[in-house]
Amino acid sequence: MLPFHALIPAAMMLVACNSGGSDAPGTVSPAPTATPTPTPTATTPTGGVPFATREVATFNAPWAMTFLPDGRMLVTEKGGTLLLVSADGSQKTTAATIPVDSAGQGGLMDVILAPDFASSRRVYLSYSVSGNGGKGVALARGVLDGNRVTGISELFRATPFVSGDGHYSGRIAFAPDGQHLFFTNGERQKFDPAQDPKATLGKVLRLTLDGQPAGDPGLTAKGFHPAVWSYGHRNLLGIAFDRQGNLWEQEMGPKGGDEVNLIVAGRNYGYPLVSEGDHYDGRPIPRHSTRPDLEAPKVAWNPVISPGGLIVYSGKLFPQYAGDLFIGGLSSEALVRVDVNGTNATKGDQWPMNARIREVEEGPDGAIWVLQDGSNAKLLKLTPRS
């Protein structure tokens, strides 16, 4: 386990993955004091949008959020600030300030509660750091003690570290058995590492709760890094289990070809050998149909949606969408629904949100919460239209 103080701070601009835009730079708030936010405002949508939208709070380049059992929220900001937010959004307290490398697409990324949070109070985080050979994404864990997350220590680092500031990924999901976690490592815009058995880049990893490799035994026997569960991925910015135990993942494609995949142990998902998109310079990439030995996506988009966060919805307030996927759209400025039927998926709705959507979460009451992207980004609560 690497010491928390060994991480290297930075604060620079985040470049979007396949949206052609850029994110606003994040900043770290030094004061762990409560900060009031504007009174929430409500708007009523028109047309076919099935939800009403209420603004709850604003943040500086937020990346992820998760709910505590009492309805409060933990929200990460790109610059390294982890915020504890009241259930109504009116108060924000700095729970931790984490030294991260926030250049380009880097920064403080995912936050998720341990399966045994009620007793352990453990919180898992991911972020980008600098080290020997360049930069990479790290997994860490701390304990929520009062209003602070303390004792933060690093559990796992992507390998190898490489140059550049893109495609870290860094999403976390716990297995239904509560004994393992899944951690996404992007291919860092380097293409070939996604097929390199020794690298964790471009992979879905399975780890123990202490960060020890627990990958697919079949791949490990073939000489893969012992944490690798699946490979041939690009930039994996969403991962979640459904109630049947299926693991769903979404990732940004190149010029076209954003994907939703059903993750199966040991499978090769093809990148960069195949894709439903092409290289940015116009060079074609063979399609999945040319390689039936490689796993094809369940859903693909061209033009792209630039997918952000991902949830499997439970259906408490929107029962018609129970079991479906909800995805934040960055360049598409949309909330995207994918219709799930067992292990199959098809495109559902794409609702305009008029802002880049970085994160999607389900609240305790079944409301859908979305975080906009960039500076002065709004946290919105979506509930059924009256």
List keywords for this structure.
five-stranded antiparallel sheet, mainly beta, 386 residues, 26 strands, 43% strand, single chain
Walk me through the structure.
With 386 residues, the chain is mostly beta strands. The chain is built from two helices and 26 strands. The protein has a five-stranded antiparallel sheet with strand order 1-7-6-5-4, with no helix packed on it. A hairpin with a 4-residue loop joins strand 25 and strand 26. The chain is globular, with a radius of gyration of 19 Å.
Termini, distance in Å? Answer: 51 Å
Radius of gyration: 19 Å
> What is the N-to-C succession of helices and strands?
EEEEEEEEHEEEEEEHEEEEEEEEEEEE
Strand order of the largest sheet: 1-7-6-5-4
Largest sheet: 5 strands, antiparallel
Write down the overall mean pLDDT.
90
> What is the molecular shape?
globular
Number of helices, counting only DSSP H or I runs of 4 residues or more: 2
* Low-pLDDT windows of residues: 1-46
Helix percentage: under 10%
The total of beta strands comes to 26
* Overall SS class: mainly beta
What quaternary form is this?
A: single chain
How much of the sequence is in beta strands? 35-45%
Q: What is this structure, in a nutshell?
A:
The protein contains two helices and 26 strands.
Layout: helices, strands, pairs:
Layout: E1 35-36, E2 41-43, E3 51-59, E4 62-67, E5 73-77, E6 81-85, E7 91-97, E8 108-113, H1 117-120, E9 122-131, E10 134-145, E11 148-157, E12 169-174, E13 180-185, E14 203-208, H2 217-221, E15 228-231, E16 235-241, E17 247-252, E18 258-263, E19 299-301, E20 307-312, E21 325-329, E22 334-341, E23 344-352, E24 357-362, E25 368-372, E26 377-384
Antiparallel strand pairs: 1-7, 2-3, 3-26, 4-5, 5-6, 6-7, 8-9, 9-10, 10-11, 12-13, 13-14, 14-15, 16-17, 17-18, 18-19, 20-21, 21-22, 22-23, 24-25, 25-26
